[in-house]
Amino acid sequence: MPELPEMENYRIQLSRHILDLPMSEIVVHREKSINVEPDQFAKELSGRQVIFVERRGKHLLFHLDNGKRLLLHLMLGGLLYLGTKEERPERSTQVEISFGPDLVLYFIGLRLGYLHLHSAKEAEDLLSHLGPELLDRRMNEERFIRLLSKRRGSLKSALVNQDVVAGIGNCYADEIAFAAELLPSVKLQNMSEEDFSRLYKATREVLLEATEAGGYMEMPLTKDDTLTGGSNDLCRVYDREGEVCPRCGDIIVKTELNGRKVFYSPGCQHDR
Question: What residue stretches are annotated with the Formamidopyrimidine-DNA glycosylase catalytic domain (predicted)?
Fold first, then answer.
């Protein structure tokens, strides 16, 4: 499932290509991917322009010039592709939105995900439960420690809880725990201030590195996109079961924690 780095990469790249271009054609292939009737959806978007693309957690918010919002959550398996009609990917698309005369944004794999049209207030209310953004300029080490140190339960469970912090899922939770030299299963109530300080630095390093590398999406956003997917080879433990840990040489283990798969290196990740 796309996480903060993947969606931030999409936000940055889309902002370079689609802003202030009128939507000229809206095609809906799967009605369940949207929240209004297809005819109404097309009518509401036709001629409108995206004036700003915002990311909130794992969501993208397309701010329209009439004050409304398109709220996107790709969920598991969702992808975006931006190109001409001739460059249409050989994939099943659920929604297609044309910008200007010959640029189409293809929404792919929205079987669990969605693209919903809302008022600004509706979108704000729907996302109001999300925790703070960890890369926000208002986030600092002191606030981070205060946010997590008062909680109980495992580290991974807290990191992937969108009500606690926004944007982290299975992959980056494991990578952050590895960078902090902590087991994903470590209990927050057993962590020291030094542990939390190390965790804060690890969180920023992992998320910034992955974002700058373009995230781990399997397909480029455009035909000229050489950035997206660049962090595929940067994962140290996630999906590396049985491989050698790059830090200590131990074998990476896969297990489960509260129904989620977990990858870690037993040789250099500890509960304190």
Answer: 2-114
